[in-house]
Amino acid sequence: MTNTLKNNGLFSVYLLGFLFAFHTALPTYINSSFLNTFISEKMIGIIYIIASIFTICCFLFMPLVLKKFGNYHTALFLIFVEILVLLGLSFFDSFSWLIPLFIANLVAIPLIYFSTDIFLEGYSSNRATGRIRGIYLTSVNLAWAISPLVSGLILVEGDYSRIYFASFIFMLPVLLILVSRLKRFKDSPYEATHVWQTIKVISRSRDLRNIFMANWFLFFFYSLMTIYTPLYLSKNIGFSWGEIGITFSIMLLPFVLFQFILGRLADKKWGEKEMLSLGFIIIAISTSLISFITDKNIVLWATILFVTRIGASIIEVMCDTYFFKKVDSLNANIISFFRMSNPIAYIVAPLFAVIMLNFFSLELQYLFLALGLIMFIGLKFSLSLEDTK
Fold first, then answer.
1. Are 57 and 182 in contact (CB under 8 A)?
2. Does the pLDDT value for residue 327 go beyond 90?
């Protein structure tokens, strides 16, 4: 593959990643409030658990689907499904329709991200993995940083359908880029490895095992924070959606500011192990402190949430850089398992929250303290890695 073709392909994937992330992020922080109009906040986690079980089942078949249909056609199908689902969420108002569509939306998103991973890895060279992943994550997270502001402006009087329709609009250029710029993508000869063989490969490699676990703890953090932070700020602290949008946009800036730089440092100077461990220390301490902030002070909340995402941004780019230095696009089965960290976390974390909130009568406020303490466990896995430097 020529350098020109690689560079054109990379730019297309960066742009697709930005637009798809914007589409994904627009409804992400209002999803739990949308569900809260139908069910109690203590049971919201159940919907995420159901969606995650379906997602895991789909991920198990993804290597076989890629082998049979190729990544381009797989991505095309998934994007069409996502477009139809978002149209349904925009115009249906029946609980019996909205919940299945909501679950389908949660399933489709990580599968499309997985397909994007395959495109990105296909155009990447191993010596520049950190730089390429850094640019990609920066483009994706720029969209995440902007979207809460846009969501706050769009959301009027609890009309969540406006957000889902806006999300639908941003899927149209994603489809256009895929069809016009990535149609000629050349698939690698994907390995047809069975599930248990893949598990054996991962379990026999200490480094793969540890990076899988570090990545899983990050998604455990994301899942609880994504579901319960908007609910807590709106219902317990009393912020408006406009104020929450501003707070979340500031919160997400570390992903834009630091990840490209960190990716280059991982390639050129430092190893991933030390930075990954620092990320876990920052995220654990700052998340624990959330439980002790009860004032309705937008500057204070923006600051503490910003610090949590400094830790998360370090962990995210180091996990991706380390992992993709160990595998390439041939290993679709291993990449599939790596991306299953997300749905598995969205089973365990909401279940943990449901148990804590319902059976142990834990106040929502102290769920963040429990989460912070759990994040310290991630240090065990980051410190056990063999550095690539």
1. no
2. no
DSSP annotation string for 149-211? HHHHHH--TT-THHHHHHHHHHHHHHHHHHHHHSTT----------HHHHHHHHHH-HHHHHH
Sign of CA dihedral 362, 365, 369, 372: positive
Cβ atoms of 359 and 172 closer than 8 Å: no
**What's the domain range around 378?**
3-184+194-383
Pairwise pLDDT comparison (86 vs 141), residue with the higher score = 86
The total number of structural domains that make up the chain = 1
The two counts, helices (H) then strands (E), for the chain are: 16, 0
Please check the confidence at residue 2 and state whether its pLDDT lies above 70: no
CB 117 within 8 A of CB 339: yes
The Cα–Cα gap between 11 and 377 comes to 37
27-35 average pLDDT score: 91
* 189 within some domain: no
Residue 138 in tokens: 């920066």
Q: What is the mean pLDDT of residues 210-239?
A: 94
146 in a structural domain: yes
In a domain, 27, yes or no: yes
Distance between CA atoms of residues 93 and 311, nearest Å: 39
Q: Residue 130 — very low, low, confident or very high, per pLDDT cuts 50/70/90?
A: confident
**Residue 46: CA count within 13 A, CB half-sphere:** 13
3-state secondary structure of 360: coil
Residue 388 has pLDDT above 80, yes or no: no
Q: What is the spatial distance between Cα 359 and Cα 353, in angstroms, rounded to a whole number?
A: 10
Determine the pLDDT at residue 93.
85
158 occurs within a structural domain: yes
CATH number of the domain enclosing 20: 1.20.1250.20
Tell me the pTM: 0.85
Place of tokens 């204070």: 300
User: For residue 127, what pLDDT band results from cuts at 50, 70 and 90?
Assistant: low
